[in-house]
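Researcher: I'm comparing several assemblies side by side, and this is the next one on my list. It has 600 residues spread over two chains. Same procedure as the others: predict the full complex and return the structure.
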Amino acid sequence: MLGCARLAVLQQLEYRFNLVADTIIQPVIVGLVEITLWLTFFASTGQSELVGFGREFYLAYAIWAAFIARLSASWMYEMQMIEDIETGTVNSILVRPISFFEYYLGQLLGYKALITVISLIAPLVICVALDLPLMVERIPLALALVFYFIVFGHIISLMIASLGFFFSRVHHLTVAKNITLWMLTGEFFPLDLAPEPLRSLLVALPFSSAAFRPVGYLTGRLPIESIYDGFISVTVGILVLAPLATLMWNAGRRRYSGTGA
Amino acid sequence: MTANIETLNLTRTYETYKKPEGLLKSVQGLWARKIEKKIALHPTTLRIDSGQIVGLVGSNGAGKTTLLKVLSGLIHPSAGTAEVLGYKPTSRDPEFLRRISILLGQKNQLWWDLPPADSYDLLARIYEIELPTARERVRELSQLLQCTEQLHIQLRRLSLGERMKMEIIGALLHQPDVLFLDEPTIGLDIIAQTTIRNFLMKYVKERRPTVILTSHYMDDISLLADRLLLMSQGRIVYDGTVNEFAGRSESRQTLSLKILQPPTRDVQILDHFVVAAGSLAIKEELPASAIGDVLQALMAMSAVQEIKIEEVEFEDVIRSFMEKDARLRAPGGAAAARV
């Protein structure tokens, strides 16, 4: 798997311009958009606090959510997995002693490690420059939860990609999933702003570990227990979805006709 | 000799969706689709011994690639069984995958964005080969294939021939015991074809892997294979040595000659051979047994300036065999009559 992680890093480094756009420009733009939204909200309502947290907390949340949610997303490799199955490129993996899941998980983690190293500087600089709440010592644990969530997200990607064995085109499902995750992860707004019982449900789901829990923890909104709960919630998610993903993959493989070669 | 590959009634059926033209039919296709089943591989029983080099020949859609895909574990058979090196291919046992290799000539298997040298490093990790050993093998193979200079250039920037050489190195890096080569020289210029053909000839002679090779270029088959399997419409229609096949098939020769006095009217020499009025040059493919009589008839008709008799190419012999087989299998043909 380390070899696959290395492959992803090498591939990203081949295209310098794309790498800068991906790791710096894109998260900065998303962060700026979210900051603008929160500034507009506080300015238009005249409020200085929302559910006990001041404007600075929300600005810090917006900046870190843009970075962390991007880190936990797996759609880039999911698209590639779908395309591999649709076009028959998956053949080159199936004939080698490595699993499709492991091959892409390795690449995904390698790619995420690279963008973490490069992108982390942007939210740090912005938080320091704007004097926003941030607990630097909490970064490692928050990132550990995000990387654990990536494994869970990758299982969902395998399930979606496996549908490619049954239907000719399934790309749009990834798009629909991304929009859903935008809300479920807490990238769009902190999940504790939702009314009960939706709030409890959203926080309990493993998806909250993709943005809400790590960002809340980093910015001082959530205690360390929420990170532990996140690990438990993601573990339950993995235990539930992994067998289902295996079933879907095996059923798909039996249908596969080796298209395109 | 031990069997490396054994199949018993191995069958593969594909399902295809047929959509009649038109917008209305497309809309109807949202809930009702006409699925058709096509048998790509009829029940096939086969035994290939260790170290054999088998040439698999047939027209497009004959079932060659399907057979290779089932044997390499890429696709599941619809019925029957297959065993390769004692493993069931679809189980994807890592030990089995470490001992086979499949090269699909029309598909890249190395990484498009990376120089081949980086891809080989990754393959070394996947196949658990020590890095120095893998690099030494790459050096040797690239020298034999005359492509050392291209090892550090992105794959996407290489020519088709160079890419194929790199794919071959990738396929052989782990020194497989069974090698499936699907059209390794397809689309290549004559120089690249010759280099690859010569390389494969040397490689299989030295390492003696079991090879199944499909190719549209008969030179590949006649030079490399010691056993020939002809496939037609999902069935193996001939299984024997290349030499036996050439001997068994009706021997044919091409007769070319120039005559001095062209005939003033059409002259019928044989049932399907007519010399047209005014012809000065004649060229015809004929059964070898008829050449003497035809020559006699032509020389009686006119003085002959130049005569050339050539053996028909192996490719033409196969084509003629396949055409005959297709005629027999066509509705109303002898094969249909037997059923």
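Model: For your comparison table: The CA atoms of residues 183 and 215 of chain B lie 5 Å apart.
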